């Protein structure tokens, strides 16, 4: 499995390319902005994009769905609880401020524990509500992609529709802090002192989850 963290300038979002080295296919997690640069990166590394996975329905994670899907024909996957947000993107002020475009409908609605095959790579869906009702993390072999559920030294905001701090903290304790301590945490934004962390470090030092 190859992991490429791509930092997007707007909103300091992180997009991730998860590649299967044998089949040369990849998934893009939250390819929201700078879609030309993201596609060029996949191209340089020799990957065909087969899956677009949104960790949740906010437009700073979904705004690139249309462009990436049009360019690659990749399938779009999002948790069922956040899928309805995709159609609302155009009408949201938050989205317009971000320059977000409407998203195509999802091809696959995800549930907790679903497994997404990217060639021989397996990404397991962990439903972690709290930032949004349908927020997910994606787990594969020692790596966890946490979207806006868990950041390095912080957690996602819970004051937007569907948010709940109590639920978010429970999700992190039940679904993330039960993973092996050396699991690498790859967040959805570059908000921390470092661009990635580990489950052990967040469990021991993150002030929001003590
Ligand atoms: Zn968000
Ligand atoms: Zn975000």
What does this protein look like?
It is a single chain. The protein is an alpha/beta fold and 210 residues long. It is 26% helix and 30% strand. The chain has helices at 35-45, 59-62, 65-72, 80-86, 93-97, 165-176, 199-205, and strands spanning 2-7, 14-20, 25-29, 48-53, 75-79, 108-110, 115-118, 121-127, 136-140, 143-147, 150-151, 154-155, 184-187, 197-198. Strands 1-2-3-4-5-6 form a six-stranded mixed sheet. A hairpin with a 2-residue loop joins strand 11 and strand 12. The longest helix has 12 residues, at 165-176. The radius of gyration is 16 Å and the shape is globular. The mean pLDDT is 94. Bound molecules: zinc ion (2 copies).
In summary, what is this structure?
It contains 7 helices and 14 strands. With about 210 residues, it is an alpha/beta fold. One zinc ion (ZN) binds near residues 58, 60, 61, 148 and 189.
């Amino acid at each position: 499995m190859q992991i490429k963290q791509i930092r997007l300038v707007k909103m300091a979002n992180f997009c991730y390319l998860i590649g299967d080295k044998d089949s040369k296919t990849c998934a893009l997690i939250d390819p929201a902005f700078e879609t030309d640069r993201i596609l060029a990166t996949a191209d340089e590394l020799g990957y065909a994009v087969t899956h677009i996975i949104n960790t949740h329905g906010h437009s700073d994670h979904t705004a690139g769905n249309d462009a990436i899907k049009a360019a690659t024909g990749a399938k779009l996957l999002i948790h069922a609880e956040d899928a309805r947000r995709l159609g609302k993107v155009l009408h949201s002020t938050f989205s317009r401020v971000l320059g977000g475009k409407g998203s195509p409908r999802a091809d696959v609605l995800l549930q907790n524990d679903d497994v997404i095959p990217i060639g021989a790579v397996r990404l397991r869906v962990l439903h972690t509500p709290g930032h949004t009702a349908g927020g997910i993390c994606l787990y594969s072999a020692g790596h966890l992609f946490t979207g806006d559920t868990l950041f390095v030294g912080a957690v996602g905001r819970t004051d937007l529709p569907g948010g709940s701090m109590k639920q978010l903290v429970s999700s992190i304790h039940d679904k993330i802090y039960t993973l092996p301590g050396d699991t690498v945490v790859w967040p959805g934004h570059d908000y921390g002192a470092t661009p990635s962390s580990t489950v052990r470090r967040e469990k021991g030092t993150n002030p929001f989850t003590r």
